[in-house]
């Protein structure tokens, strides 16, 4: 039985290894291409050999070019600023809304929660026009506020906090109320510190959404001063010409911050998903 189980495990790992190659090979090729000089980029593209995936003369000139000559660092800083600002505001607003939906009873609570659920089921593209008209009337178009505010009241984040707060024992809050604590003090000092997994889940979710945002920044801003990462990456490709070396190097540089964030927070992220009613 042990021998048969060992063979099943080996076969499973072999199958999974073969499947993973279909995802890893294009990524390895992109990394290798970014580390080659721009001129011989396709020298080893066809036919594929080991040189296609291991550059013979690796260089960082493509990365130096996008940061020195194309000001890609500005786009990175813009995306970091927009993402971090959105995260801070979203955690505050969504956690307070989730706390109210989880622990308070008031008229229209069920209808309000239904609206919250609907908001993250509607495709963002369907509300772009009225959203742009709104920020235009508020005179915040082509500003950082136009990139930050639409992502703050996040329906999915409210849902996650509501689910997590529902699991917090009400007896803790009742004891705090008897001791004279206000509802805000209970939320800030007791409930919020207990919700670290939910907060981390929202941080990762909001960061990925803002970092990968392309369509809305193109609509809401038109100045290079507010250019974000995805817009900067897309700018390397046009109908007339595509700078593949710049595209590959900027795509790799732009993917590092979310990868690093997820590697540091993945333990809490998984714990937050398993504790907010999203278990499979």
Automatic annotation (TrEMBL):
Family matches, as PANTHER family: ABC TRANSPORTER PERMEASE PROTEIN MG189-RELATED-RELATED, SN-GLYCEROL-3-PHOSPHATE TRANSPORT SYSTEM PERMEASE PROTEIN UGPE
Keyword Transport: yes
Name of the protein this chain belongs to: ABC-type sugar transport system, permease component
Pfam families (alphabetical): BPD_transp_1
Keywords for the protein's UniProt record, in alphabetical order: Cell membrane, Membrane, Sugar transport, Transmembrane, Transmembrane helix, Transport
Source lineage: Bacteria, Thermotogati, Thermotogota, Thermotogae, Kosmotogales
Subcellular location: Cell membrane
GO biological process annotation, one example: transmembrane transport
């Amino acid at each position: 039985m042990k021998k048969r189980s060992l063979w099943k495990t080996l076969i499973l790992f072999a199958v999974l290894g073969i499947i993973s190659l279909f995802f890893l090979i294009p990524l390895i090729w992109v990394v290798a291409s970014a580390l080659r000089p721009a001129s011989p980029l396709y020298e080893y593209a066809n036919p594929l050999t080991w040189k296609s995936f291991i550059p013979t003369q690796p260089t960082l000139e493509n990365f130096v070019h996008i940061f020195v000559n194309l000001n890609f660092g500005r786009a990175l800083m813009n995306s970091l600023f927009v993402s971090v600002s959105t995260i801070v505001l979203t955690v505050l607003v969504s956690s307070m809304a989730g706390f109210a939906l989880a622990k308070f009873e008031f008229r229209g609570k069920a209808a309000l929660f239904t609206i919250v659920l609907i908001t993250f089921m509607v495709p963002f593209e369907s509300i772009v026009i009225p959203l742009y008209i709104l920020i235009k009337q508020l005179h915040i178009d082509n500003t950082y506020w136009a990139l930050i505010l639409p992502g703050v009241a996040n329906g999915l984040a409210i849902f996650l906090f509501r689910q997590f707060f529902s699991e917090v024992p009400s007896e803790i809050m009742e004891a705090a109320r008897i001791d004279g604590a206000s509802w805000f003090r209970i939320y800030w000092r007791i409930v919020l510190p207990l919700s670290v997994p939910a907060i981390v889940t929202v941080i990762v979710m909001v960061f990925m959404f803002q970092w990968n945002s392309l369509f809305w920044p193109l609509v809401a801003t038109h100045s290079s001063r507010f250019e974000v990462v995805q817009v900067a990456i897309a700018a390397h490709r046009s109908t007339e010409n595509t700078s593949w070396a710049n595209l590959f190097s900027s795509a790799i540089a732009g993917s590092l911050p979310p990868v690093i964030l997820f590697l540091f927070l993945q333990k809490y992220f998984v714990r937050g998903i398993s504790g907010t009613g999203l278990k499979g």
